[in-house]
């Protein structure tokens, strides 16, 4: 074999970065005009964490309202706004930006590049996303306006027409909703294009496609999926805006328009969208689990194939959200099959993670704790998904709290858990400081308990017939106790999140120094100093296997001998 | 490498949790509960679905036990122990046989689950309508239900009456679902799965209740502010009870000269534009038909019991009972409202 | 486990041009947008409650179509010129492409003028109006964006800022123009042939 030593730069040439002398305003200005993928990544994450607090506060208000029957804590209108804004915010302003933010930071480092393919497009995309978020929340203020009514969108995150058309939603709130998502959608599109171009065109020498870290692979798949997922929503929202403002008739039943069409369009977007959210965290798990099990990922090619497979199948399953709209029995059957098929590639992923742990030496530091909980919860969430895919059963479960439980199990139990794992894992790289393990354990256990109290219980109230989107319920339905438990769990989650914020603040000021490679990991980002310099690598790295740092650490037993 | 242990946290939390569970709330236990659980079916389709769900639960439960068990075993068995040396475990990159196995087994499971599901879909969705089945047209309105029995000439609201079906005398009810405005969904968990009411898209569903009684349901598709109070009741009655109910509903409105004043107010105010009362000049269709209002147990789609006091409060200010509902307050004097209520009370 | 040593593969390390990757990604996304509008158009064909119908008012824009499609040829020819460094010829063909694009827009404007003033068809008239103006309008918007791009490049060329080192970028932009033309083929088929 040729040259075995891998010249990985960055650590060689570190010009000290001297922030002390820069005045605050200039520093702020630096951040606003930055085109550095790492700073933009941090901005994304901060932005998303801010909105997580906002949407979480909305969730907590809903939980107070629902804690007891016939409660009067929130006005019905306010409750409707809160669940709409909670869902919209969590999906578009928390989930997407935080995942694309982490990708922004990590992907170039992992493929040995100095920046994204289009740094300025990258900055533009971030600011579009940010502006979209502000526009959405501006509806609380701007929506008041002339009509003296409405204030925030209140039609659910699926905004089913005709409820969202002018005759039933007067005032400009739905226009805010559509415009905000179109704007942030363009931002997302820009980022997706950027990530695709970066992974395809900016890899360092030797980084063949089948040597890319799985996180990079998954971001590539997600970005490709985003291209054809966000755009249908944009198209449908343009139609809705035309209906609302120019008097078009796309969704106007009076003129022969179809309410069903919107439902189709929304879920053609909405279903792949949930995979856009979950696939990046599969990538995160595929980075963290091997490192903390001290083993190479099991079945790398199968993992790649499964990711592509999931993305592909997910394009043909949208109508499983529509089993109750009265499709023919043949279409229902088709969508049952396609939906269940997703379980197979997903199962492959779960089994491969399991096999990676199997035979390892598992270290239960905070990132790994979150990851293990993720596998466990995702397993359950996937299985409840399969139950929902059993169409006749879904006729019962649809729009009940069982569905709410299913998707929070994925969105919180899988995605948020893994986002926390990612933050604990990469925080040392980004800041140079470790997050406190003690606070991390408190955060983990409290969040775990709160999570299970809330979302396990939701399955039961769902089966007991409680529908979603209701601001209150009758006392004699027998849902009272369980709802109280759900609300208590939500508050425990809130406390856990506050501990997390506290951990970040404390550790930033006096956390332990991290060093370049605190977890003894194997991908390229750990070869750079923490935090990495603006140019990432002093000289372009060359890699020979999927785990370049393993090769360096084990020159006698390098990976490239075994990989196929 | 930096490692730390914070094992105290979980134990402390567990302790607090147990304490909280012990002093948990028990404030609503004394109410008579009737939970519309999907696991307490009382009608053919709901029962079929229940059977299917038990099967699906068993399959997924099995998967959970196996996979979850392996995960639990792995993290306990392969955790790093304090006295381990620093060497790395053997690196294993994959195995074709194992990977093939865990691709093929799930495929087989999916096939079984899919075929079972498909069979039930066709059985329920394409069930032929027997000739003597009862037909009801259900029309969803922003926040109330209109029920029409086209063959019997009955129009009523929010409380559906159907006969019980027995094996000797099967009597399913076929429901034709329409919407007057936005999407709604008809859901009585113990009787059948839900089906949506969508403008321009007529749907159909059926129930075949096998036990008499009162079944609760409610609108299951968010349809606006008062979606939460778009409640629904189904009274399943013996054939005799049902026949009696039909008979009384087919009568025109009772005319009681003692309440002529109330009737006068009703007919000369906007009420008549939105509500119909058979046998009077009131022909409105925007609100519920009030011809037999007094025969109903609740008003305003289950928002309140049908009592004179509630009727009074409702007419005085519907928003106070159901904020955001589409009936306006008529700004009538209390006296007028009393007379109206007295009149409405006679409409058996 | 296999013990086959893997070649590092670092010798001839060449990756695709990032601009082209990005443009193809953008086009993929655009395809999805157009798909939704085309589906909307087809779904509502013949579902109008009131007239006018497509058959009553639509004329087949033959000349327009020929212009737009030939602009794909001229831009392709111009790409070949710049590759060889013939900037003059490039500029001429490029300008021709722009002219053809603008002709198409003028044609569309005249068609709309007739539909609105003579036939009284607007976006609020009926489902046909709604879907027609949004689909054709969406395409026309893309032509406008493309024409602005063409114009900018033309200005840069005439001011002497473009040479053969920009070939790859020019080709990337041309991809977009080809895409806009290809979409027209679909729109044309759906609106003027199938839908009429
Ligand atoms: C990231 C988010 C995410 C993910 C990953 C999923 C994953 C899945 N979801 Fe979920 N879902 C949502 C988010 C998500 N969902 C949301 C937000 C909604 C509601 C939206 C709304 O209405 O507001 C929803 C709603 C929803 C519905 C509609 C319910 C309704 O409204 O009536 C259905 C129905 O089929 C469904 C099914 C599935 C299935 C089958 C999967 C599968 O991908 C799961 C696959 C995984 C497994 C199966 C487990 C692992 C596999 C094995 C261990 C192998 C062996 C298994 C078998 C052989 C089966 N989901
Ligand atoms: C990623 C997505 C995501 C996440 C993370 C969550 C998280 C949570 N969700 Fe959410 N939810 C959705 C996505 C998500 N949800 C969607 C898409 C819907 C459907 C919407 C619709 O129907 O239109 C929904 C709907 C939904 C409902 C149903 C409403 C209804 O139908 O009536 C409920 C009810 O309990 C709920 C609860 C919760 C709770 C308790 C959490 C908890 O996990 C939240 C925990 C986090 C916190 C508690 C934040 C902590 C922060 C603080 C405490 C800080 C306090 C403030 C400051 C410092 C300023 N959610
Ligand atoms: Cu009607 Cu919800
Ligand atoms: Cu889905």
Number of domains as seen in the coordinates of chain A: 1
The CATH architecture of the domain at 2-82 and 89-125 in chain B would be Orthogonal Bundle
Subunit arrangement of the protein: heterotrimer
Mean pLDDT of chain A: 91
User: From N to C, what is the helix and strand string of chain B?
Assistant: HHHEEEEEEEEEEHHHEEHHH
Instruction: Outline the biggest β-sheet of chain B.
Output: 5 strands, mixed
Q: Which key terms come to mind for this protein?
A:
heterotrimer, A: mainly alpha, Cytochrome C Oxidase, Chain A, 65% helix, C: mainly alpha, Four Helix Bundle (Hemerythrin (Met), subunit A), 6 helices, 73% helix, elongated, disordered N terminus, binds heme-A, binds dinuclear copper ion, binds copper (II) ion
Structure description:
The complex is a heterotrimer of chains A (564), B (348) and C (196). Chain A is built from 16 helices and no strands. Chain A has 564 residues and is mainly α. In chain A, helix 3 (76-110) crosses helix 13 (401-431). The two termini of chain A are 16 Å apart. Chain B has 348 residues and is α+β, with helices and mostly antiparallel strands. Chain B has helices at 8-22, 44-77, 96-125, 239-250, 260-268, 271-274, 308-316, 318-321, 334-345; strands spanning 134-141, 144-149, 154-157, 159-163, 173-179, 184-186, 195-197, 203-207, 213-218, 231-237, 298-299, 304-305. Chain B is elongated. The N and C termini of chain B lie far apart (81 Å). The model of chain B is unreliable at 1-7 and 21-31 (pLDDT under 50). Chain C is an all-alpha fold. Chain C has a single domain, classed as Four Helix Bundle (Hemerythrin (Met), subunit A) (Up-down Bundle). Chain C has six helices and no strands. Chain C has helices spanning 18-43, 54-57, 62-83, 87-118, 127-158, 167-194. In chain C, helix 1 (18-43) packs antiparallel against helix 5, helix 1 (18-43) runs parallel beside helix 6 (167-194) and helix 4 (87-118) runs antiparallel to helix 5 (127-158). The complex binds heme-A (2 copies), dinuclear copper ion and copper (II) ion. Residues 271, 274, 320-321 of chain A line the site of copper (II) ion.
In brief:
With 564 residues, chain A is an all-alpha fold. Chain A has 16 helices and no strands.
List the helices and strands and how they pair.
The complex is a heterotrimer of chains A (564), B (348) and C (196).
Chain A lengths: L23 H10 L3 H30 L9 H35 L8 H24 L30 H29 L12 H14 L2 H17 L12 H35 L6 H15 L14 H29 L8 H24 L1 H7 L3 H31 L5 H27 L16 H31 L37 H6 L11
Chain B lengths: L7 H15 L21 H34 L18 H30 L8 E8 L2 E6 L4 E4 L1 E5 L9 E7 L4 E3 L8 E3 L5 E5 L5 E6 L12 E7 L1 H12 L9 H9 L2 H4 L23 E2 L4 E2 L2 H9 L1 H4 L12 H12 L3
Parallel strand pairs in B: 1-5, 4-10
Antiparallel strand pairs in B: 1-2, 2-3, 5-8, 6-7, 9-10, 11-12
Chain C lengths: L17 H26 L10 H4 L4 H22 L3 H32 L8 H32 L8 H28 L2
Helix pairs in contact in C: 1-5, 1-6, 3-4, 3-6, 4-5, 5-6
Bound molecules: heme-A (2 copies), dinuclear copper ion and copper (II) ion.
């Amino acid at each position: 074999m040729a040259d075995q030593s891998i010249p990985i730069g960055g650590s060689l040439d570190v010009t000290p970065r001297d922030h002390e002398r820069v005045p605050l305003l200039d520093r702020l200005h630096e951040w606003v005009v930055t085109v550095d993928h790492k700073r933009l990544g941090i901005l994304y994450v901060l932005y998303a964490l801010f909105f997580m607090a906002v949407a979480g506060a909305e969730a907590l208000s809903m939980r107070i309202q629902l804690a007891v029957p016939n409660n009067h804590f929130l006005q019905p209108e306010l409750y409707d706004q809160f669940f709409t804004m909670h869902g919209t915010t969590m999906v578009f302003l928390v989930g997407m930006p935080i995942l694309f933010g982490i990708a922004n930071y990590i992907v170039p480092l992992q493929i040995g590049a100095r920046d994204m393919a289009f740094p300025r497009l990258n900055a533009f995309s971030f600011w579009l996303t940010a502006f979209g978020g502000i526009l959405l929340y501006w509806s609380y203020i701007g929506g008041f306006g002339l009509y003296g009514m409405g204030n925030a969108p209140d039609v659910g995150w699926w905004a089913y027409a005709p409820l969202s058309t002018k005759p039933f939603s007067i005032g400009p709130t739905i226009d805010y909703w559509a415009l905000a998502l179109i704007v942030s959608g363009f931002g997302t599109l820009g980022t997706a294009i950027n990530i695709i171009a970066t992974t395809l065109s900016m890899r360092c020498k030797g980084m063949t496609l089948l040597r890319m870290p799985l996180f990079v692979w998954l971001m590539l798949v997600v970005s490709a999926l985003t291209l054809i997922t966000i755009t249908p929503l944009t198209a449908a929202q343009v139609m809705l805006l035309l209906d609302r403002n120019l008097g078009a008739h796309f969704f106007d039943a009076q003129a022969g328009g179809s309410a069903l069409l919107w439902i189709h369009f929304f879920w053609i977007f909405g279903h792949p969208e949930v995979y856009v959210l979950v696939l990046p965290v599969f990538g995160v798990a595929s980075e963290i689990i091997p490192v903390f099990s001290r083993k190479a990922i099991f079945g790398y090619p199968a993992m790649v194939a499964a990711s592509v497979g999931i993305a592909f199948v997910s394009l043909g399953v949208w109508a499983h959200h529509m089993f109750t709209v009265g499709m023919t029995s043949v279409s229902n059957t088709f969508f049952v099959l396609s939906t269940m098929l997703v379980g197979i590639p997903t199962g492959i992923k779960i089994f491969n993670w399991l096999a990676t742990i199997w035979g390892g030496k598992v270290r239960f530091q905070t990132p790994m704790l979150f990851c293990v909980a993720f596998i466990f919860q995702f397993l359950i969430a996937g299985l409840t998904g399969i139950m929902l895919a059993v169409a006749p059963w879904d006729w019962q479960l649809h729009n009940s709290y069982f569905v709410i439980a299913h998707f929070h199990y994925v969105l919180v139990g899988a995605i948020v858990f893994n986002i926390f794992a990612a933050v604990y894992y990469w925080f040392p790289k980004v800041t140079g400081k470790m997050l406190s393990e003690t606070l991390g354990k408190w955060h983990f256990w409290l969040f775990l308990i709160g999570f299970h109290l809330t979302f396990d219980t939701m399955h039961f109230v769902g089966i007991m017939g409680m529908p979603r989107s209701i601001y209150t319920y009758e006392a004699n339905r027998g849902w009272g106790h369980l709802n109280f438990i759900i609300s208590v769990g939500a508050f425990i989650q809130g406390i856990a999140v506050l501990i997390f914020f506290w951990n970040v603040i404390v550790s930033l000021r006096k956390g332990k120094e991290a060093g370049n490679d605190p977890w003894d990991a194997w991908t390229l980002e750990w070869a750079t100093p923490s935090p990495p310099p603006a140019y990432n690598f002093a000289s372009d790295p060359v890699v020979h296997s999927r785990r370049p740092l393993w090769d360096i650490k084990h020159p006698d037993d390098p990976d490239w001998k075994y990989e196929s | 490498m930096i490692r730390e242990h914070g094992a105290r946290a979980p134990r402390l939390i567990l302790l607090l949790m147990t304490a909280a569970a012990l002093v948990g709330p028990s404030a609503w236990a004394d109410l008579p509960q009737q939970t519309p659980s999907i696991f307490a079916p009382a009608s053919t389709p709901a029962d079929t679905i229940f059977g299917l769900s038990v099967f699906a639960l068993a399959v997924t439960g099995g998967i959970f036990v196996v996979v979850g068990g392996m995960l639990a075993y792995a993290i306990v068995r392969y955790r790093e122990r304090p006295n381990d040396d620093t060497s790395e475990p053997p690196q294993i990159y994959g195995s074709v046989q194992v990977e093939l196995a865990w691709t093929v087994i799930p495929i087989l499971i999916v096939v079984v689950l899919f075929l079972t599901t498909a069979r039930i879909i066709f059985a329920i969705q394409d069930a032929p309508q027997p000739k003597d089945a009862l037909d009801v047209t259900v029309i969803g309105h922003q926040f109330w239900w209109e029920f029409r029995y086209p063959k019997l000439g009955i129009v009523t609201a929010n409380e559906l009456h159907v006969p019980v079906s027995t094996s000797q005398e099967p009597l399913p009810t076929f429901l034709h679902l329409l919407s007057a405005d936005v999407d709604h969904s008809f859901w009585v968990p113990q009787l059948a799965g839900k089906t949506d009411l969508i403008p321009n898209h007529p749907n159909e569903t059926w129930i075949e209740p096998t036990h008499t009684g009162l079944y609760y349901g409610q609108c299951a598709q968010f349809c606006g502010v008062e979606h939460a109070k778009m409640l629904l009741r189904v009274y399943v009655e013996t054939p005799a009870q049902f026949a009696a109910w039909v008979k009384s509903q087919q009568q025109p409105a009772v005319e009681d000269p003692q309440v002529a004043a109330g009737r006068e107010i009703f007919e000369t105010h906007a009420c008549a534009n939105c509500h119909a009362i058979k046998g009077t000049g009131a022909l409105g269709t925007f609100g519920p038909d009030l011809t037999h209002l007094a025969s109903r147990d609740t008003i305003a789609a289950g928002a309140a019991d049908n009592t004179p006091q509630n009727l009074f409060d409702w007419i005085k200010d519907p928003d106070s009972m159901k904020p955001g509902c589409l009936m306006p307050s008529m700004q009538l004097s209390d006296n007028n409202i009393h007379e109206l209520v007295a009149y409405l009370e006679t409409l058996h | 486990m296999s013990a086959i040593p893997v070649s590092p593969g670092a010798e001839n390390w060449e990756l695709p041009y990032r601009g082209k990757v990005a443009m193809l990604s953008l086009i993929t996304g655009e395809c999805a947008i157009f798909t939704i509008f085309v589906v909307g158009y087809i779904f509502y064909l013949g579902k109008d409650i009131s007239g006018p119908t497509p058959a009553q008012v639509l004329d087949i824009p033959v000349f327009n179509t020929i212009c737009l499609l030939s602009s794909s040829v001229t831009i392709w020819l111009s790409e070949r010129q710049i590759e060889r460094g013939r900037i003059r010829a490039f500029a001429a063909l490029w300008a021709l492409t722009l002219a053809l694009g603008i002709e198409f827009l003028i044609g569309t404007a005249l068609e709309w003028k007739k539909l609105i003033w003579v036939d009284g068809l607007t976006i609020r008239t009926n489902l046909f109006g709604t879907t027609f103006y949004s689909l054709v309008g969406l395409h026309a918007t893309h032509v406008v964006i493309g024409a602005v791009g063409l114009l900018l490049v033309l200005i840069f060329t005439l001011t002497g800022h473009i040479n053969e080192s920009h070939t790859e970028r020019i080709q990337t932009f041309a991809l977009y123009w080809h895409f806009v033309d290809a979409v027209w083929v679909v729109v044309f088929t759906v609106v003027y042939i199938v839908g009429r």
